[in-house]
């Protein structure tokens, strides 16, 4: 039991290290291709830090553990907004870019409300997974084009560019490859020993996926957004979370279902309602004053605490 707990903790560190390498390499490559910090946050950084969720859910789908695969997606999205943005906003209020107010936040809210419709028959089929992946690709292309079109209105400081783009192209490629390899190893370690803990404690795989696995795979997002908040890089901090949540609902859920139809029987209305609630709160919070302040961050953290209080007896 204690050995499994220790290995889960070690897997968190491995995932963090792998995501750090992947984000550094991917961000450097993106900046050199002329992308702004906002689109880097929404795409390269967001998708890079969400790679653990993708790998964990894919492995769970292959292993016939659908509750962990789906619970990981729903739990990560809850954790990303309520905890990561909550903590980041408490550290330093996060400014909201006009593109996020006009497009990205409303798109995330729409996807958060519509994607769970695939849960209605108790399974996300391969066809539904394929549709989600098509939507993911369409959003990514659209976000990059939109950001480039509006890029002239976004100022990028020399310090920010230097921070993100320091590695050269060769180093960036090595970091990306090494980061992916480390993430694959870390994801396998996390799922294997989290399931062992669940079985020994009699806790359902759905609860483990919604809490321990979700929090573990969200550690890269937490580190990235908190560091960005400390550095005043609000575009990356906010874009990282919004992009990660879209990636989880479209790429991760879609990819898992494409690998193997995913049962959603372990996910309740409380879980989906909590995910919709924190996403629904985020949009007006961002519109009010065009920033996420300390009060709003505290409300998000309190909402997550209330969700844990309500769901934990399910174990």
UniProtKB/TrEMBL annotation:
The record's listing under InterPro entries reads: K/Na/Ca-exchanger, NaCa_Exmemb, NCX_ion-bd_dom_sf
Membrane topology summary:
Multi-pass membrane protein
Coarse class of the primary localization is membrane
- Keyword field contains Transmembrane: yes
Compartment(s) where it occurs, according to its Swiss-Prot or TrEMBL record:
Membrane
Keywords (A to Z) from UniProt? Membrane, Transmembrane, Transmembrane helix
Q: Which PANTHER family match?
A: INNER MEMBRANE PROTEIN YRBG (PTHR10846:SF8), SODIUM/POTASSIUM/CALCIUM EXCHANGER (PTHR10846)
Protein's recorded name: Sodium/calcium antiporter
Q: Which gene encodes it?
A: yrbG_1
